[in-house]
Design a protein that fits this description.
single chain; about 130 residues; alpha+beta; GTP Cyclohydrolase I, domain 2; 4 strands; about 25% helix
């Protein structure tokens, strides 16, 4: 089966996301970035297996045990950001993606990490990655 990027009713894939989480991170390669923390914005998009949709049900059981808990995804991202210094936004994005793919229901993940205070004349600079199981 080819895994769609984010969501597909036909393939039973649900889109779960965490939007615009702003955290303070120790990140960067320059000496001044090791000395002070900076704001990053994180967006996470998951393609999640939806067994109820795959089976043709329009309404599934209202049970947390059958879904990916976005609070856990957000908390993992917070933990990753707060765990020591990271040199590259690419590395931070990869670590977050890897933590999401640890959940067997997650088929694909897209992570965007943006530094918000890098350039006076730009809203942000960063990276977006997509990984699949």
């Amino acid at each position: 089966m080819t895994v769609p990027t984010i969501a597909s009713a036909k393939d039973g894939i649900r889109h779960v996301f965490v939007r615009d989480m702003v955290l303070v991170a120790s990140i960067g390669i320059y000496p001044h970035e090791h000395e002070s923390r900076q704001r990053v914005r994180i967006n996470i998009d998951l393609g999640v297996a939806d067994e109820a949709a795959r089976a043709g049900a329009t309404v599934g059981a209202d049970e947390i045990s059958r879904v990916v808990d976005y609070e856990k995804i957000a908390n993992r991202a917070r933990t990753i950001v707060s765990t020591g210094h990271t040199r590259l936004v690419e590395t931070l994005a990869e670590r977050i993606a890897e933590s999401c793919l640890a959940n067997v229901r997650v088929l694909s993940v897209r992570v965007r990490v943006e530094k918000l205070d890098v350039f006076a004349d730009a809203t942000s600079a960063g990276v977006e990655i997509e990984r699949r199981r």
